[in-house]
Amino acid sequence: MHGTVFAYYKHTPLNHLKSKRIKKLFLCAAIVFVGAFLTDASAQSTKSNKDMQPKWAQSGEDYVEYLYLPEISTYYYVPRKQFIYQSNGYWSFSSSLPEAHRGFNLREANKVVINEPGAYRYFADHKVKYSGKNGAVAVD
Question: What is the DSSP code string of 19-32?
């Protein structure tokens, strides 16, 4: 008999069953992991932050991440209650509007709801897209 005992053992039905069990176990674990990931992602998109939204916003949306104010090229980041605007070529984050816009009427302003991470990074697109919009607009 040429060959080793290990070569014969490798092809026995018992090892084949163990291999199938491991594959099934791995597949089940993968399904559970993917299911948990999808459940978590869908739960995030449906949670409400109405209680965190500023009184002047009144967007009617359950969840708002950013409000874009096209008239003054400024964002309001709801989770941190910060205005985000450009100052000397850099983005500034502040709890109040810049001095030049302190008298701006936020309640009457046009507002665009933008629910995407880092919305201000897409300012050039938003400026073109929403420059002539009147009233509140929701974007997901």
Answer: HHHHHHHHHHHHHH
